[in-house]
Design brief:
With 463 residues, this protein is α+β, with helices and mostly antiparallel strands. Strand 1 and strand 2 form a beta hairpin. Helix 5 runs parallel beside helix 6 and helix 10 runs antiparallel to helix 12. The protein is rod-shaped and about 160 Å long. Bound molecules: adenosine-5'-diphosphate.
Length: 463
């Protein structure tokens, strides 16, 4: 059966408290009662002895007489205490008998005691029994006394009151602790369940697409605080992802709009006969189609990269060898633009994904070539320190305006848009570079001055 945390916690606490109170009261009741009745039994024996010795003292050997006034007083006193006595002299003659003295009082006292004991201890099955004891003085038997009292033990009124108050105290303590524990249990359960319920509420909102929802409250329970932090973190990640998704859709639409508008207007003009479909115009249309194709290809590779970046195929690679290989693939292009590419630095090794690092070098070097005019210099310099390796690619080309520098690693960002339309870039190359380097735990920085050239510096951890 499913239950809320609150009711489960409350009921568990209630059961534990009930059990504890039950066990404690059961044990204390048994122990106290046992101790108390033992004590009472002993007291009764003692009392019988005291009665016996007190009566013994009422006999005078000189006069051979009993002080009957005192015997009577002792007898009556004992009667009120629940001891019914009969005193005999040494010849067995009855000297004093409580029942003979006041039958009514005796019966009343006996009934009271029997009634009280039967109610309080129904399982005791007690009754009045008599014990006969010799009366002696200086070792001489001077008579005997028969003491009759409720056995195995009985409680007088004071003792009854004591036991009764004790039971009431125990009961009150039980009831009080029950109430307190119910209250504490309820508060505790509320304190634990409230943040969980709030978390559920916020996760529902997140599931409904309200990614800006956050849990504001703090919990002093470790696990709950962890839950709150994780949910907030999750919401934050989802919010960022949603922003990026929207941004990407906007960017893609924006990037496609220009070539498609151009294509549309050219083709319209040609189909409507306003323009002659000359080779030059068809070439323009073709260029725009190629641009769209490049954009889609770049997007595909970025998507693939972002998907695969979690699985890097790391191996020991030599940066110098990779750079040399990439430089040689750009040989024809650099010769066309009369660019001088020099590579400085020895072999540096690191653990990384070969094809991805190669892609980084390709993108950076192709940019350096793309944005350099004829006769410029490009220098690739390798470096190494204790934990990191890296390289910088410096060109003496166009440079990047200072206010555009912070954005060049963003998707689709192209500095100096009109110029870049001519160079055919889609603004994804540096995004790919950054993504690969981050997946490796590395980073990239850029220094550039408009008209002077740019330096891109890549740093990667060795392991
Ligand atoms: P693109 O495909 O447009 O080259 P990138 O992401 O590789 O896209 O580069 C983003 C922008 O950064 C480029 O459009 C360009 O304006 C600028 N840029 C990148 N590298 C260089 C460089 N070496 N010199 C000057 N500008 C550069």
């Amino acid at each position: 059966m499913r239950q809320s945390i609150k009711s489960r916690l409350s009921s568990t606490i209630l059961v534990i408290v009930l059990l504890t109170i039950g066990i404690i009261s059961f044990l204390s009741n048994i122990l106290i009662n046992k101790q108390f009745t033992n004590y009472i039994s002993k007291q009764q024996e003692l009392k019988a002895q005291i009665i016996t010795s007190s009566i013994s003292q009422q006999y005078s050997t000189f006069t051979d007489q009993w002080n009957m006034d005192y015997v009577h007083a002792i007898g009556m006193f004992s009667l009120y205490e629940g001891y019914i006595i009969k005193v005999y002299d040494k010849d067995g003659m009855l000297l004093w008998d409580a029942q003979a003295h006041d039958m009514k009082l005796c019966n009343q006292i006996m009934d009271e005691i029997s009634e009280r004991m039967r109610i309080q201890y129904p399982q005791l099955n007690g009754d009045f029994t008599s014990v006969s004891q010799p009366l002696s003085q200086d070792g001489n038997v001077i008579g005997s006394v028969s003491i009759s009292y409720f056995g195995p033990f009985f409680l007088n009124e004071n003792e009854f009151r004591f036991i009764h108050s004790l039971n009431i105290i125990l009961l009150s303590v039980g009831v009080l602790s029950l109430v307190v524990s119910l209250l504490v249990g309820h508060l505790l359960a509320k304190r634990i369940s409230r943040p969980i319920l709030n978390t559920v509420e916020v996760t529902k909102q997140i599931a409904d697409g309200k990614y800006e929802a956050r849990l504001e409250e703090k919990s002093d329970t470790d696990e709950l605080q962890l839950l709150i932090t994780s949910i907030n973190h999750l919401a934050e990640s989802l919010e960022t992802m949603e922003k990026l998704r929207k941004q990407l859709t906007e960017d893609v639409a924006h990037e496609l709009r220009t070539p498609i508008t151009i294509l549309q207007s050219y083709l319209e003009a040609m189909t409507e006969g306003i323009w002659e479909p000359s080779e030059e115009r068809l070439q323009s249309c073709y260029d725009e189609v190629v641009r769209i194709g490049t954009l889609v290809k770049d997007l595909e590779s970025l998507a693939k990269l972002e998907k695969d970046n979690l699985h890097l195929n790391k191996q020991e690679i030599d940066l110098r060898t990779i750079i040399d290989q990439v430089v040689s693939t750009f040989e024809a292009e650099s010769m066309n633009k009369k660019l001088l590419i020099t590579v400085q630095g020895g072999h540096t090794y690191l653990m990384a994904d070969l094809s991805r690092i190669k892609q980084v070098v390709v993108n950076l070097l192709s940019n350096a070539i793309k944005y350099s005019e004829e006769g410029c210099n490009i220098t690739v310099a390798l470096f190494e320190n204790k934990d990191n390796v890296g390289f910088s690619i410096q060109d003496t080309g166009a440079g990047i305006p200072a206010d555009e520098l912070p954005y060049i690693f963003e998707r689709f960002y192209r500095a100096d848009k009109s110029r870049n339309r001519m160079t055919g870039g889609s603004g994804i190359g540096l995004t790919i570079v950054k993504s690969i380097l981050h997946a490796h735990g590395g980073n990239i920085t850029v220094q550039s001055e408009l008209g002077q050239g740019s330096t891109f510096t890549v740093t990667l951890p060795k392991a």
